[in-house]
């Protein structure tokens, strides 16, 4: 499973998608509102790409992509995007600005 939590205090949503290796599962970006979460049922030793954006447009230049593995938790806070995997939490980056496109 891949987990995403939007813990930003401002009224800000993110569009999140996760790639898949087989036929099962959806790769369309999901809107994750403030104080909500989404999960993706993914399991593969190759890992997955989590795409986080300000819009549902997969070509939006503000989108950011990260490699994650089964059991990873990605979460946003006011000061950045974080990843917890294998019991270790690290800051991936500062939050991208809201797209004006």
Query: How much helix, percentage-wise, in residues?
Result: under 10%
Computed CA radius of gyration, to the nearest angstrom: 13 Å
What is the approximate shape?
A: globular
Low-confidence stretches: none
Q: From N to C, what is the helix and strand string?
A: EEEEEEEEE
Task: Specify the biggest β-sheet.
Answer: 5 strands, mixed
> What number is the mean pLDDT?
90
Strand segment tally: 9
Adjacency order of strands in the biggest sheet: 4-1-7-8-9
Overall domain count: 1
Distance between the termini: 32 Å
Query: How much strand?
Result: over 45%
Number of helices: 0
Based on secondary structure, the structural category is: mainly beta
Question: Could you name the key traits of this structure?
Answer:
46% strand, 5-stranded mixed sheet, 101 residues, mainly beta, 0% helix, globular, 4-stranded antiparallel sheet, 9 strands
Tell me what the structure shows.
- The chain has 101 residues and is an all-beta fold.
- The chain has one domain (2-93).
- It is built from no helices and nine strands.
- The chain has a five-stranded mixed sheet with strand order 4-1-7-8-9, with no helix packed on it. Strands 3-2-5-6 form a four-stranded antiparallel sheet, with no helix packed on it.
List the helices and strands and how they pair.
Layout: E1 2-6, E2 14-18, E3 30-32, E4 36-40, E5 48-53, E6 64-68, E7 73-77, E8 80-85, E9 88-93
Parallel strand pairs: 1-7
Antiparallel strand pairs: 1-4, 2-3, 2-5, 5-6, 7-8, 8-9
